[in-house]
């Protein structure tokens, strides 16, 4: 159930939100004070439940993720090969199994297992191909940047952008629909660097157009993080800012929906 009454003794009943908790080699059912806590724990618990169900596939992936060694070398500045393997496997299982609506009883769980089983292999290939490309492009940019050290403002801006996109846990922490756009974001940075040599004044002008919007977002994000609040609209704005960078610095790559500085200013207001 989504909500349940719990007897806390002395005839006193309180309302709580039940959800699964991941205990490593098993799961348990716990009751949480808030719906958000329950939702977060339940997703991890459910993922563990699927992994326990698919032990053979899990064993196979632990030894046979396509391109893992090469990805591991590019991932080295961020974490170990084991970190990378864990994140890739978690992402594969989450993509295959955690689609909405999530199962709430044994029959629905069984049915979703049957559906997920056939998707696991294909998803492992798709996700490893995507992450492999992202890591290779990221590594290439890291090698390219030192040649631009006399363009300090642009390089500093790009380094901060890369650090935000490619963090230690970017594979599992980035919403998958966003991760799919990372190769385009990285390609846009490469194109920006090519243009920077020819026209540094243009880059500086575009950056000054972009910077106030990012500052607005960043201030709000810091406040929300301190309050431990997630705001879907602010999160959406953050990704629109990423699209705005493509639009400003590498227009030829196109954005999925129209973005401009003016549109985003209006939206922010």
Task: Describe the SSE topology.
Elements: E1 4-7, E2 13-22, E3 27-32, H1 35-53, H2 55-63, H3 68-75, H4 81-97, H5 106-144, H6 152-165, H7 170-173, H8 176-179, H9 182-198, H10 200-227, H11 232-249, H12 261-268
Antiparallel strand pairs: 1-2, 2-3
Helix pairs in contact: 3-5, 4-5, 5-9, 6-9, 9-10, 9-11, 10-11, 10-12, 11-12
In short:
By secondary structure, this protein is mainly α. 69% of the residues lie in helices and 7% in strands.
Task: Describe this protein's structure.
Helix content is 69%, strand content 7%. The protein is built from 12 helices and 3 strands; from the N terminus they run E-E-E-H-H-H-H-H-H-H-H-H-H-H-H. The protein has helices at 35-53, 55-63, 68-75, 81-97, 106-144, 152-165, 170-173, 176-179, 182-198, 200-227, 232-249, 261-268; strands spanning 4-7, 13-22, 27-32. It has a 3-stranded antiparallel beta sheet. Strand 1 (4-7) and strand 2 form a beta hairpin. Helix 6 (152-165) runs antiparallel to helix 9 (182-198). The chain starts with a strand and ends with a helix.
């Amino acid at each position: 159930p989504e909500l349940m009454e719990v007897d806390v003794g002395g005839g006193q009943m309180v309302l709580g939100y039940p959800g699964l908790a991941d205990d490593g080699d098993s799961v348990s059912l716990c009751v949480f004070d808030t719906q958000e806590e329950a939702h977060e724990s339940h997703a991890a618990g459910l993922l563990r439940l699927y992994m326990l169900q698919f032990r053979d596939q899990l064993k196979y992936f632990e030894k046979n993720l396509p391109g893992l060694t090469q990805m591991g070398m590019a991932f080295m500045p961020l974490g170990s090969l084991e970190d990378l393997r864990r994140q890739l496997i978690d992402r594969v299982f989450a993509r295959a199994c955690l689609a909405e609506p999530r199962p709430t009883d044994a029959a629905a769980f069984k049915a979703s297992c049957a559906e997920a089983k056939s998707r696991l292999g294909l998803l492992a290939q798709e996700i490893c191909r995507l992450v492999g490309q992202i890591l290779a492009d990221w590594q290439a940019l890291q090698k390219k940047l030192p040649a631009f050290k006399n363009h300090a403002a642009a390089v500093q801006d790009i380094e901060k952008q890369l650090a935000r996109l490619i963090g230690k846990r970017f594979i599992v922490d980035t919403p998958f629909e966003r991760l799919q756009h990372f190769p385009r974001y990285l390609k846009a940075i490469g194109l920006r660097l090519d243009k920077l040599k020819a026209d540094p004044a243009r880059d500086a002008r575009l950056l000054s157009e972009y910077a106030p919007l990012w500052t607005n977002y960043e201030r709000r994000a810091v406040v929300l993080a301190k309050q431990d609040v997630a705001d879907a609209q602010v999160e959406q704005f953050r990704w629109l800012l990423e699209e705005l960078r493509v639009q400003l610095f590498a227009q030829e790559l196109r954005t999925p929906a129209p973005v401009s500085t003016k549109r985003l200013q209006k939206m922010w207001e």
